[in-house]
Amino acid sequence: MDPLPRTWSAIQASEPEAGPPAPAPSTYRLIAPSAAVGVALVGALILVVGILAAPKPPSGLVALPSGDTADSDSIVVEVDGAVRHPGLVTIPPGSRVADAIAAAGGYSAAVDATAVGRTLHLAEPVDDGDQVTVPRRGDVVPAGDAEGPPGDAGPIDVNTASESQLDTLPGIGPVTAAKIVTARTEQPFASVDDLLTRKVVGAATLAKIRDLIVVR
Fold first, then answer.
1. What pLDDT does 25 receive?
2. Helix (H, G, I), strand (E, B), or coil: what is residue 64?
3. How far is residue 37's CA from residue 32's CA, in Å, rounded to a whole number?
4. If DSSP states are collapsed to H, E and C, what string results for 172-212?
5. pTM (2 decimals)?
6. What's the pLDDT at 113?
7. Which residue, 190, 192, 163, is CA-closest to 176?
8. 11: part of which helix (H) or strand (E)?
9. For the chain, what percent of residues have pLDDT higher than 70?
10. How many of the other CB atoms lie within 10 Å of CB of 119?
11. Is the pLDDT at 77 greater than 80, yes or no?
12. Do 174 and 163 touch, CB atoms closer than 8 A?
């Protein structure tokens, strides 16, 4: 067999093997920055959408931090002593000692009505956190300026009590106290129920004071 011609050998040696074309260097340099810019734009778009979608407080109002706030519609007062339900009571602002006692169920049967007149001012306003102590019979209480001997305990005798002592009874104000004194001056009361029979007090008021008064 004859050897290949020289021209064929030269062509075969000079042609390199075919392979995948290498990408131009400029292609890589353009792809990386473009991807970074795209991510940044997407992040900025999400931030803008979130800000626009966030609820805004009404004009003229300032948002306050959440948390417990004091209830300005009520106050808490401690009532102990001769009441039916001693403990903490919740009453409206501007309430008075008499209101706090009423919220605790009113006087109990052990109340010292005379001592109440010496130690408590039923019309005195009470504030949040105050304490009201209703004296019981047998308790040692300071002597006051009210009429009657210090330490005198027990129900009030409507035939002998002063107007200031009668005024300490629940439901009995200065007008009714004066009415009681006038009625007994005309004719002493024969019994507790005589207050109702003679129309000095009403049935509801008598029910409140029945355990706190006597007729001797």
1. 52
2. coil
3. 9
4. CCHHHHHHHHHHHHHCCCCCCCHHHHCCCCCHHHHHHHHHH
5. 0.39
6. 81
7. 163
8. helix 6-14
9. 60
10. 19
11. yes
12. yes
Query: In which element (H, E) is residue 9 found?
Result: helix 6-14
pLDDT value, residue 173:
84
- Beta strand segments in the chain, E: 75-81, 87-91, 131-134, 156-157, 213-214
Tokens of 139: 């308790």
Q: Can you say whether the dihedral through the CA atoms of 180, 183, 184, 189 is positive or negative?
A: negative
Question: Would you give the DSSP letter of residue 151?
Answer: T
Q: Which residue has the tokens 């035939």?
A: 159
Q: How many residues does the chain have?
A: 216
Q: Which of 210, 194, 172, 193 is nearest to 164 (CA)?
A: 172
Q: Which amino acid is at 198?
A: R
What does residue 150 show for φ and ψ, rounded to 5 degrees? Answer: -60, 140
User: CA 160, 166, 167 angle in degrees (round to 5)?
Assistant: 155
Q: Which residues contact 172 (CB under 8 A, 6 or more apart)?
A: 166, 180, 201, 205, 209
- Residue 65: band (very low, low, confident or very high) from pLDDT cuts 50, 70, 90: very low
